[in-house]
Automatic annotation (TrEMBL):
Keyword Transmembrane attached: yes
Descriptive protein name: PepSY-associated TM helix domain-containing protein
Residue intervals passing through the bilayer: 24-46, 162-181, 193-211
Pfam families, sorted: PepSY_TM_like_2
Organism: Undibacterium umbellatum
Keyword Transmembrane helix assigned: yes
Keywords from the UniProt entry: Membrane, Transmembrane, Transmembrane helix
Amino acid sequence: MQSGTDNLSQQQSRAFWLRHLHQWHWISSALCLIAMILFAATGITLNHSAQIEAHPVVSKKEGRLPLALLSQLNALKNTDDAAIPGEVNDWLAQDLGIKLNGQAPEWSPEEVYVGMPRPGGDAWLRIALDNGEIEYELTSRGWIAYFNDLHKGRNTGTAWSWFIDVFAVACLIFCVTGLFLLKMHASKRPSTWPVVVFGLVMPLILALMFIH
Protein backbone atom coordinates (compact mmCIF):
# COMPACT_ATOMS: atom_id res chain seq x y z
CA MET A 1 0.00 0.00 0.00
CA GLN A 2 2.82 2.35 0.92
CA SER A 3 4.61 1.57 -2.36
CA GLY A 4 1.50 2.44 -4.36
CA THR A 5 1.16 5.72 -2.46
CA ASP A 6 4.82 6.58 -3.15
CA ASN A 7 4.40 5.81 -6.86
CA LEU A 8 1.32 8.00 -7.04
CA SER A 9 3.16 10.82 -5.27
CA GLN A 10 6.10 10.51 -7.69
CA GLN A 11 3.77 10.54 -10.68
CA GLN A 12 2.01 13.65 -9.37
CA SER A 13 5.35 15.37 -8.74
CA ARG A 14 6.55 14.44 -12.23
CA ALA A 15 3.34 15.70 -13.79
CA PHE A 16 3.63 18.97 -11.82
CA TRP A 17 7.19 19.64 -12.98
CA LEU A 18 6.50 18.59 -16.56
CA ARG A 19 3.52 20.95 -16.74
CA HIS A 20 5.46 23.92 -15.40
CA LEU A 21 8.62 23.20 -17.38
CA HIS A 22 6.64 22.89 -20.60
CA GLN A 23 4.86 26.14 -19.81
CA TRP A 24 8.07 28.09 -19.15
CA HIS A 25 9.74 26.40 -22.12
CA TRP A 26 7.12 27.39 -24.67
CA ILE A 27 6.65 30.92 -23.28
CA SER A 28 10.40 31.64 -23.35
CA SER A 29 10.72 30.12 -26.83
CA ALA A 30 7.85 32.26 -28.11
CA LEU A 31 9.43 35.40 -26.62
CA CYS A 32 12.86 34.85 -28.12
CA LEU A 33 11.95 33.00 -31.36
CA ILE A 34 12.12 35.91 -33.84
CA ALA A 35 15.14 37.51 -32.16
CA MET A 36 16.90 34.13 -32.09
CA ILE A 37 16.38 33.76 -35.84
CA LEU A 38 17.81 37.27 -36.30
CA PHE A 39 20.84 36.57 -34.11
CA ALA A 40 21.47 33.18 -35.74
CA ALA A 41 21.28 34.65 -39.25
CA THR A 42 23.54 37.58 -38.38
CA GLY A 43 25.94 35.16 -36.71
CA ILE A 44 26.45 33.66 -40.18
CA THR A 45 26.83 37.06 -41.87
CA LEU A 46 29.29 38.22 -39.19
CA ASN A 47 31.31 35.02 -39.53
CA HIS A 48 31.58 35.64 -43.28
CA SER A 49 31.82 39.42 -43.21
CA ALA A 50 35.07 39.33 -45.20
CA GLN A 51 33.29 37.57 -48.07
CA ILE A 52 30.22 39.81 -48.04
CA GLU A 53 31.08 42.94 -49.96
CA ALA A 54 29.61 46.17 -48.63
CA HIS A 55 28.73 49.11 -50.86
CA PRO A 56 28.67 52.25 -48.69
CA VAL A 57 26.36 55.00 -49.86
CA VAL A 58 27.38 58.53 -48.87
CA SER A 59 24.96 61.46 -48.90
CA LYS A 60 25.84 65.05 -48.05
CA LYS A 61 23.94 68.18 -47.12
CA GLU A 62 25.07 71.77 -46.81
CA GLY A 63 23.46 74.91 -45.47
CA ARG A 64 23.91 77.99 -43.36
CA LEU A 65 22.61 78.56 -39.88
CA PRO A 66 20.60 81.79 -39.33
CA LEU A 67 22.50 84.52 -37.47
CA ALA A 68 20.17 84.45 -34.47
CA LEU A 69 20.82 80.74 -33.94
CA LEU A 70 24.53 81.12 -34.68
CA SER A 71 24.82 83.66 -31.87
CA GLN A 72 23.36 81.05 -29.49
CA LEU A 73 26.09 78.61 -30.46
CA ASN A 74 28.84 81.20 -30.08
CA ALA A 75 27.61 81.96 -26.59
CA LEU A 76 28.27 78.31 -25.68
CA LYS A 77 31.57 77.64 -27.45
CA ASN A 78 33.68 78.05 -24.31
CA THR A 79 31.59 75.50 -22.43
CA ASP A 80 32.94 72.04 -23.23
CA ASP A 81 29.91 70.03 -22.07
CA ALA A 82 27.19 72.31 -23.43
CA ALA A 83 24.41 70.71 -25.48
CA ILE A 84 23.13 72.03 -28.80
CA PRO A 85 20.27 74.48 -28.04
CA GLY A 86 16.78 73.21 -28.69
CA GLU A 87 16.02 75.92 -31.26
CA VAL A 88 19.07 74.89 -33.29
CA ASN A 89 17.97 71.25 -33.09
CA ASP A 90 14.49 72.19 -34.32
CA TRP A 91 15.86 74.27 -37.23
CA LEU A 92 18.20 71.48 -38.34
CA ALA A 93 15.35 68.95 -38.26
CA GLN A 94 12.84 71.15 -40.08
CA ASP A 95 15.06 72.81 -42.68
CA LEU A 96 17.67 70.14 -43.41
CA GLY A 97 16.07 66.96 -42.09
CA ILE A 98 18.98 66.39 -39.68
CA LYS A 99 18.09 64.89 -36.30
CA LEU A 100 20.83 64.96 -33.69
CA ASN A 101 18.99 62.58 -31.32
CA GLY A 102 20.66 64.05 -28.25
CA GLN A 103 24.22 63.36 -29.38
CA ALA A 104 26.82 65.31 -27.40
CA PRO A 105 28.73 67.90 -29.46
CA GLU A 106 32.46 68.62 -29.47
CA TRP A 107 33.31 72.31 -29.17
CA SER A 108 36.32 74.18 -30.49
CA PRO A 109 36.94 77.92 -31.06
CA GLU A 110 36.28 77.46 -34.79
CA GLU A 111 33.41 74.97 -34.96
CA VAL A 112 31.01 72.62 -33.24
CA TYR A 113 31.17 68.99 -34.35
CA VAL A 114 28.59 66.29 -33.69
CA GLY A 115 29.36 62.63 -34.38
CA MET A 116 26.29 60.48 -34.97
CA PRO A 117 27.31 56.82 -35.25
CA ARG A 118 24.42 54.46 -35.93
CA PRO A 119 23.80 50.79 -36.77
CA GLY A 120 24.91 50.06 -40.30
CA GLY A 121 26.44 53.44 -40.89
CA ASP A 122 27.80 56.70 -39.59
CA ALA A 123 27.06 60.42 -39.77
CA TRP A 124 28.61 63.69 -38.67
CA LEU A 125 27.67 67.35 -38.58
CA ARG A 126 29.95 70.39 -38.56
CA ILE A 127 28.85 73.99 -37.96
CA ALA A 128 31.42 76.75 -38.44
CA LEU A 129 31.11 79.29 -35.64
CA ASP A 130 32.30 82.26 -37.71
CA ASN A 131 29.77 82.15 -40.55
CA GLY A 132 27.30 79.37 -39.64
CA GLU A 133 28.29 77.14 -42.56
CA ILE A 134 26.85 73.63 -42.14
CA GLU A 135 28.32 70.40 -43.46
CA TYR A 136 26.55 67.07 -42.93
CA GLU A 137 27.54 63.64 -44.18
CA LEU A 138 25.66 60.34 -43.81
CA THR A 139 27.20 56.98 -44.71
CA SER A 140 25.05 53.86 -45.02
CA ARG A 141 26.63 50.43 -45.41
CA GLY A 142 23.40 48.55 -46.17
CA TRP A 143 20.92 46.28 -44.44
CA ILE A 144 23.36 43.46 -43.69
CA ALA A 145 25.66 45.87 -41.85
CA TYR A 146 22.60 47.29 -40.05
CA PHE A 147 21.52 43.88 -38.73
CA ASN A 148 25.12 42.93 -37.93
CA ASP A 149 25.39 46.01 -35.72
CA LEU A 150 22.11 45.09 -34.03
CA HIS A 151 23.66 41.70 -33.26
CA LYS A 152 26.70 43.37 -31.68
CA GLY A 153 24.72 46.14 -29.97
CA ARG A 154 26.92 48.68 -31.76
CA ASN A 155 25.65 52.26 -31.54
CA THR A 156 22.13 51.00 -30.84
CA GLY A 157 21.23 53.00 -27.72
CA THR A 158 19.86 52.13 -24.30
CA ALA A 159 16.54 50.61 -25.37
CA TRP A 160 18.18 48.01 -27.62
CA SER A 161 20.76 47.25 -24.91
CA TRP A 162 17.93 46.46 -22.50
CA PHE A 163 16.24 44.33 -25.17
CA ILE A 164 19.41 42.25 -25.61
CA ASP A 165 19.53 41.63 -21.85
CA VAL A 166 15.86 40.58 -21.73
CA PHE A 167 16.33 38.40 -24.82
CA ALA A 168 19.39 36.74 -23.23
CA VAL A 169 17.39 35.94 -20.07
CA ALA A 170 14.59 34.44 -22.18
CA CYS A 171 17.17 32.30 -24.02
CA LEU A 172 18.62 31.10 -20.71
CA ILE A 173 15.17 30.11 -19.46
CA PHE A 174 14.49 28.34 -22.76
CA CYS A 175 17.77 26.40 -22.55
CA VAL A 176 17.58 25.53 -18.84
CA THR A 177 13.97 24.34 -19.03
CA GLY A 178 14.91 22.38 -22.16
CA LEU A 179 17.74 20.72 -20.21
CA PHE A 180 15.39 19.68 -17.40
CA LEU A 181 12.87 18.36 -19.93
CA LEU A 182 15.66 16.31 -21.51
CA LYS A 183 16.47 14.90 -18.09
CA MET A 184 12.87 13.94 -17.41
CA HIS A 185 12.50 12.20 -20.79
CA ALA A 186 16.02 10.74 -20.99
CA SER A 187 15.02 7.33 -19.59
CA LYS A 188 12.90 6.71 -22.70
CA ARG A 189 15.40 8.27 -25.12
CA PRO A 190 18.81 6.56 -24.73
CA SER A 191 20.54 8.89 -27.20
CA THR A 192 19.73 12.02 -25.14
CA TRP A 193 22.89 12.32 -23.07
CA PRO A 194 25.34 11.20 -25.78
CA VAL A 195 23.96 13.94 -28.04
CA VAL A 196 24.18 16.51 -25.21
CA VAL A 197 27.78 15.47 -24.45
CA PHE A 198 28.62 15.68 -28.17
CA GLY A 199 27.25 19.25 -28.23
CA LEU A 200 29.59 20.11 -25.35
CA VAL A 201 32.70 18.22 -26.45
CA MET A 202 32.74 19.19 -30.14
CA PRO A 203 33.18 22.99 -29.70
CA LEU A 204 35.60 22.34 -26.83
CA ILE A 205 37.80 20.13 -29.05
CA LEU A 206 37.65 22.64 -31.91
CA ALA A 207 38.63 25.47 -29.55
CA LEU A 208 41.56 23.55 -28.06
CA MET A 209 42.87 22.26 -31.37
CA PHE A 210 42.33 25.09 -33.81
CA ILE A 211 42.13 28.33 -31.82
CA HIS A 212 45.51 29.64 -30.63
